[in-house]
Amino acid sequence: MTLLRAEGVTLGYGRRPVVHDVSLDITEGGVGLIGESGSGKTTLARAFLGLLTPISGNIWYGDQTLKKADLRAFRKDVQPVFQAESLDPRMRVGRSVAEALPRHARHRVAELLEQVGLDPALAARRPHELSGGQRQRVVIARALAVGPRLLILDEPTSALDVTVQARILDLLAGLDTERLLITHNLAVVERLCRTSYVLFAGRVVESGPTGDLLAKPAHPYTRALRDAVPKLGGPPPEASGRTGRTGHTEAVPATTGCPYRLRCPLAAPVCEQPPPLRELGGRRVACHRAEDAPVS
Amino acid sequence: MTHDAPPLRRSLPRLLPDRFAAFGAVLIVLVVLAAVLAPWLAPYPLDEVRPLERLRPPSAEHWFGTDQVGRDVLTRILYGGRTSLFIAAAVLAVSALAGVTLGVVAGYAGGRLRDVIMRVTDVFLAFPALLLSLALAVVLQPGVNTVILAIAVTWWPWYTRLSASVAASIATRPYVDAARCLGVPAPLIILRHVLPNSLTPVLVQLSLDAGGVILTAAALSYLGLGAQEPTAEWGLMVQQGQTLFTTNWWVVAFPGLAILLTAFAFNVLGEGLRGALDPRRVR
Amino acid sequence: MIEVRDLKVCYAGRTVADVPELDVGAGECVAIVGESGSGKSTTLLALLGLTDGADVSGHIRVCGVDVLTAPPRELRAIRGARAALVLQSPQAALSPATRLGVLMRRALRLHGRDDGAAAMARAMEAVLLDPAILRRYPHEVSGGQAQRFAIALAIALGAEVILADEPTSALDVTVQAEVVGVLRRLRAERDLALLLVSHDLALVSTIADRVLVMKDGAVVESGPAARVLAEPAHPYTRELLEALP
What we know:
heterotrimer, B: mainly alpha, MetI-like fold, disordered C terminus, C: 245 residues, alpha/beta, Rossmann fold, six-stranded mixed beta sheet, globular, transport (chain A), ABC_transp_ATP-bind (chain A), ATP hydrolysis activity (chain A)
């Protein structure tokens, strides 16, 4: 059984939902949640962390909903790793890590810092006295302090330099926790997640094994995302999709029918009906025209 | 705003090149020193009345002249500074303590608790400040303590407003979320993370307000509702000497100048602090 | 269009950028690649004389103007008009209470260019933006639209050189692809010289003719993009390449 899963979760701030009816299992081997800004991925992360209560649907922690679950146990099991800027700017980083520990275990700060590859002497520094990569390591050490079984990683490397990014990814890959990785960066998902979900306008548009998903995207949006990533020495990144006077990707998600249809090169009249999330060749996809997609 | 205001310590060096602010700071230090050291600095005992030397103009013996009962004006100004500064410090301490506590709680908690706190605050803000102070001062016994209470009652809501909005923005920072995910209880989160990170604008406001409180206290005294004879207080001195302004200007002018200068110094320092702590000036 | 020799930028005696040679001709795209603190952005700013408080020495010519010795008036005429700067987050640089169209018209008037509706619409269409967007306020457009508006502004002002500092790193990949597409097309159609500062080697490899790799203020490697990326000579370039996923 999975430790944490979302079942038909709709989320929002105030009345307007930004995540619609999402079901997602955090299975073994890492789960990736891919989406661009405004896709609702961070909102979903907050729900998984118990920081936001669903408007409808449930977050299941084991066999209990998060509302009824023992929060102390939950907080021990599930920890976030946000961006490096998630350290209190006024607090020495050692104290930030120690905050997670019970009083008698404060001596473990040094041990935790070493575990993430930092000199324990850095504990006396404040965040602005560390480099971005060091700060990110402190954030990871803080999350590890309570001995979590699952890490919710929200763009853990996107603010870092590439060489630093690579080392942080190595560190994350070496941890024996389960993980939900939220990112816009396809390469990171490929490395850390066996399964992936693609989110568009608050809806899961495709999910399945990460390798398959990126090799043979079934949803036109997944394909657009993949093709837009520049490859070393490759052709200029493709802005696939419909071209129009306003420029295609700027088209707002449709509020009725398929949310992607205003940008979709395959859009057809049928797309004015909301596409169900259906099984297709070992994955799930929410597209009426997935079968008509060019093979690539 | 995505930047955190830099901690005060790192801002101080940047404050120094600001000549105005430095001037204000020096002035404040001088005023405070003068008030604290009044018993040693004052050329005459505080209440020494010399009826024969009434209304002497400034001279070598009495630099600032003497008042209508023959007291040395300089002496009274030095001692008066103690009263005025004490009133300012007390009002600001009470206002900030009450205001910031409520504000930070409201800002962090949000929801209904926030609504309740903010509505109560609004009620206090709805009264014209001076009028409320006046009413209180009339009902209660006039005196220094009454002045403090009367002004503080109208002053704290501003601090609630200010710190609530700052705290609400701090509460959305990822480090606060991280602490919540660690299961840190809300009061500790407020104390450890929200409060320290909300204080910078409060400090600036305190400095800007000090002048205002001194002026308000002087106004209340001037209206006869504040400090009473024989307490030395700047506003009271102005009030008592007002009829003499055309004939014996020094009785009014020097305490008036003291009020003006001190209020000005605090304002200049506050503006300087605001500039130095403004995150937009961080490179 | 850009010609740099022995450029040194120092802050308080510390050299933060040292570029012996940098040339960008019309229709060319040159990229400066590096990580934070490499001096790549400083170099870009120095080209327009925008490094306040720094000691800049060497020789810089942009659009035929000697940046280090030219009078301020001549420099202002270059900046923003013939040589346009495009930043990472253009929205922050746009006055929030002013419609984009008003912003553009003011800039055009300031530089004595054609500020008619037709000229503005042409510039917008050159970057694939609907001219109707000119009626919006900065917060009403997306990051990609704002970035393309910044480029449209440069086009309308008759820019011959675009200096872009991480122009797409705040954007989603699909939007990045579009902005890059616009830049490539303008370069081909208008013979625009493009100096691009970026941390993204993969992106740079798809559009730049030549690359300068900077680290800690120094240029560690430079040459044709294809050569530098295929046979990196410097260990740091190799490290950068290996870090790519």
